[in-house]
């Protein structure tokens, strides 16, 4: 069994994310909708990742802990998807190919099991990145 | 008696539905029910009257907490922050009306700021391709009435534009498409089997990032040349079959989305999509449209093209002329190069939707958010100024994804004392004029608003 695998990451919109976002980005709904990664079940088997357990996703700019779920929309082997939003943007490379648009889709990530690691809340991630996080739930 | 308001516009996605019905309480203060809206649109209307809505600006204190302040103080703070900065950036406008966008244009010109909108991280590359290659597009009404071959390329309307397929593209019965879905062939090109792909008659599961190759293969086939056994993960036979479908269509409509603009190739993917549309017109009628994300994200493009000559990435910091060069004057690139020394986030959430490195760079300097809601940007801001919600509490003009302007209504009164984007930015403009001892310049006979004697109590 592999310890890590390299997958091609895309981060795009989903209706769950859209609905939760309008409810509020600090809500539990937004947390549930966006702090997830979807990949092909065969890739999950290769890594020994069980459904609904946490994984660490690392790109060239950073890493994030998210929950691996069964894809709601089929992902072919080799591809992974994190819904657009706070968790995805922890690892999206800001390079733009001189167009202004970051590399939101099509960048390599490594994925490894992180069963005992905690998924941070949206506020903790964003406020934490700029030194404003004061702790709490 | 509760009042039913009809033909209400929905302030969510680029489909800008204008057939919603909203049931409002007797006193016109509470939204009881929404009809015809998708789950997301419905959420916006119901969220508006939540009791935790902010009614006053909040200023960050030295200990990191927020303190409520008066609008006067917030306007003064923003005007001074913009004037003190060498190169302020005013970014956003996914969720406001053209009146607000125009008012911001005035402020940006006066303050010598860079003006940018969400297209910068979305359909910006589509603009670049359109500048280079033209835009043989049409309206969504024409799609509904005429199109019989629909191509969704790198877009997923079932998730991002939930009513697009039922109002315009797959299901509706139109003048020449009287059998609705039965009349149309739907083709989806996407590396995942999305919910849109599940609806399609044919799904081409393109290898992620290889859209250009596949567009090129279609052009090659339509021009009568041979292609390899497999292109971008799609077998030749399948490509030939889909090309034949498009050639034999009476009206082919290509919708494209972030699958083209967010990945390798960017504007080149859109450029060749436009070329394919042009080629198809040798055989039949064909048209193409960008699946714009928000209900009025086409608005800043329209308004600023009129005001400054450019739709996005408009650098007004030179003081003499507007300058646009994505890669140089685009928000993310400016942020990553640390060129911005004041950031104003209007009607969007850069905190959640920018790559986190860009957010960290922007946060080194004054960071102001103008938005009705609590969002990630507001929670890291030095100043958060709440405004009325366009489409719910504030009417105005919005541009749908096909660049058709629509007058949106308001359905309830906003919280007392909370201004609209337009009122807020007009007052900031007047304050900047006071501070610089210059005369405000108003066009179209607009009544001047003194900053100190506010229109909003």
Description:
The complex is a heterodimer of chains A (137) and B (457). Chain A is an alpha/beta fold and 137 residues long. Chain A contains 4 helices and 6 strands; from the N terminus they run βααβαββββα. Chain A has a 6-stranded mixed β-barrel. In chain A, β3 and β4 (63-69) form a beta hairpin. The model of chain A has no long low-confidence stretch (mean pLDDT 95). Chain B folds into 2 domains: 58-121 and 295-395 and 412-436, Rossmann fold; 124-290, Dimethylsulfoxide Reductase, domain 2, CATH 3.40.228. In chain B, β15 and β16 form a beta hairpin.
At a glance:
Helices cover 23% and strands 26% of the residues of chain A.
- Total helix count of chain B? 18
Assign the CATH architecture of the largest domain in chain B.
3-Layer(aba) Sandwich
Largest sheet of chain A: 6 strands, mixed, barrel
Q: What is the first-to-last residue Cα distance of chain B?
A: 30 Å
State the total count of DSSP E strands of chain B.
Answer: 21
Shape of chain A: globular
Poorly predicted spans of chain A: none
As a percent range, the share of helical residues of chain B equals: 25-40%
CATH class of chain A: Mainly Beta
């Amino acid at each position: 069994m592999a310890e890590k695998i390299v997958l091609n990451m895309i981060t795009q919109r989903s209706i769950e994310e859209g609905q939760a976002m309008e409810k509020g980005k600090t809500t539990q709904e937004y947390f549930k909708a966006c702090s997830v990664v979807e990949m092909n079940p065969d890739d999950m088997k290769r890594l020994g990742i069980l459904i609904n357990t946490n994984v660490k996703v690392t790109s060239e700019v950073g890493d994030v802990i998210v929950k691996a779920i069964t894809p709601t929309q089929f992902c072919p082997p080799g591809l992974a998807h994190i819904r657009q939003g706070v968790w995805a943007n922890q690892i999206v490379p800001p390079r733009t190919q001189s167009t202004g648009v970051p590399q939101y889709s099509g960048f390599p990530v490594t994925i490894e099991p992180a069963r005992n690691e905690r998924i941070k809340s949206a506020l903790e991630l964003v406020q934490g990145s700029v030194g404003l996080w004061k702790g709490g739930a | 008696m509760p009042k039913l308001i009809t033909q209400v516009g929905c302030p969510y996605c680029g489909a800008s539905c204008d057939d919603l019905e909203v049931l409002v309480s007797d006193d016109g203060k509470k939204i009881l029910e929404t009809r015809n809206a998708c789950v997301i649109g419905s959420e916006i209307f119901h969220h508006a009257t939540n009791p935790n809505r902010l009614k006053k600006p909040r200023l960050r204190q030295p200990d990191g907490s927020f303190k409520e302040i008066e609008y006067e103080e917030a306007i003064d703070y923003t005007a001074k922050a913009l004037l003190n900065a060498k190169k302020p950036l005013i970014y956003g406008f996914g969720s406001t009306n053209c009146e607000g966008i125009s008012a911001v244009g005035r402020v940006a010109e006066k303050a010598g700021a860079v003006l940018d909108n969400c297209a910068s991280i979305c359909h910006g590359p589509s603009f670049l391709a359109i500048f280079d290659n033209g835009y043989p597009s049409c309206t969504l009404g024409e799609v509904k009435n005429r199109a019989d071959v629909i191509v969704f390329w790198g877009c997923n309307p079932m998730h991002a534009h939930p009513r697009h397929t039922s109002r315009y593209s797959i299901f509706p019965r139109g003048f020449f498409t009287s059998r609705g879905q039965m009349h149309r062939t739907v083709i989806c090109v996407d590396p995942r089997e999305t919910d849109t792909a599940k609806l399609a008659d044919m799904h081409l599961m393109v290898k992620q990032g290889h859209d250009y190759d596949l567009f090129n293969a279609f052009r090659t086939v339509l021009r009568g040349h041979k292609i390899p056994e497999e292109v971008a993960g799609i077998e030749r036979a399948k490509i030939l079959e889909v090309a034949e479908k498009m050639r034999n269509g009476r009206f082919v409509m290509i919708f494209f989305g972030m699958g083209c603009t967010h990945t390798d190739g960017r504007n080149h993917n859109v450029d060749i999509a436009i070329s394919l549309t042009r080629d198809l017109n040798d055989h039949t009628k064909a048209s193409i449209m960008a699946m714009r994300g928000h209900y009025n994200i086409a608005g800043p493009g329209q308004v600023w093209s009129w005001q400054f000559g450019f739709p996005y990435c408009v650098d007004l910091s030179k003081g003499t002329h507007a300058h646009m060069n994505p890669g140089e004057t685009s928000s993310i690139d400016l942020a990553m190069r640390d060129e911005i020394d004041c950031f104003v986030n209007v009607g969007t959430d850069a905190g959640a939707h920018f790559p986190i490195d860009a957010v960290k760079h922007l946060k080194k300097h004054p960071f102001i958010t103008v938005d009705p809601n609590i969002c990630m940007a507001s929670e890291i801001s030095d100043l958060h100024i709440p405004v009325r919600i366009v489409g719910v509490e504030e009417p105005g003009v919005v541009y749908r994804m096909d660049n058709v302007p629509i007058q949106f209504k308001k359905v309830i009164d906003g919280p007392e004392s909370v201004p609209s984007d337009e009122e807020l930015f007009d007052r900031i403009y007047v304050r900047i004029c006071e501070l610089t001892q210059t005369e405000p310049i108003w066009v179209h006979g607009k009544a001047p608003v003194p900053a100190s004697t506010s229109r909003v109590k």
